[in-house]
Design goal:
Elements (H helix, E strand, L loop, with lengths): L2 E6 L6 H11 L4 E7 L10 H19 L2 E7 L3 H8 L3 E6 L2 H17 L4 E6 L9 H9 L10 H10 L3
Parallel strand pairs: 1-2, 1-4, 2-3, 4-5
Helix pairs in contact: 1-2
Length: 164
């Protein structure tokens, strides 16, 4: 069974994330969405809210592709999380050259920790390259329309966080 781990904070999950999930699910039998518990980032959504959004957004995709897609919170090293879930592959989405520079360093460190776990990069679709959760939250906070960047479920959750 081919198992991959796609890690991130997903605060919130965007259509860019969903595109990477859709494409990664075509490559494996099971895709674990690693939801990072990163207190330093001060997430807008709680861990439980982020996991619930991922599960809701991925349920139909899982049914369509036949790939098991599960959300898995983690707070340990990424490589340890990959081992915990039995992943042979770590999936990373790339939007721009700046992403690659950071990810390249991470791959080197992860390979030094466990060379049996491979990292696969998936380039974001051109129409999704500018989407970043941080920017989506900022646009929403300032009253902008984020419906082009997130699903209706996530848009509603963002609006709720802003008291709208």
């Amino acid at each position: 069974m081919r198992v991959a781990l796609y890690p991130g904070t997903f605060d919130p999950i965007t259509i860019g994330h969903i595109d990477i999930i859709r494409r990664a699910s075509a490559l494996v039998d099971k895709l674990v969405i690693g939801v990072a518990i990163n207190r330093d980032k001060g997430p807008l959504f709680s861990l439980e809210e982020r996991v619930a959004m991922i599960e809701a957004e991925c349920a139909e995709l899982s049914a369509q592709t036949g790939t098991e897609i599960v959300a898995h919170p983690f707070e340990n090293l990424l490589i340890d999380c990959a081992r915990d879930v039995g992943a042979q592959i770590i999936v990373r989405g790339l939007r721009a050259v700046a992403d690659f520079e950071y990810e390249y360093q991470m791959v080197g460190m992860n390979r030094a920790l466990d060379s049996s776990i491979e990292t696969v990069f998936l380039m974001a679709e051109a129409r999704h390259q500018a989407i970043a959760s941080k920017l989506v939250k900022e646009i929403c906070r300032l009253g902008g329309d984020v419906s082009k960047f997130v699903t209706p479920l996530v848009d509603e959750a963002l609006q709720g966080k802003q008291g709208r």
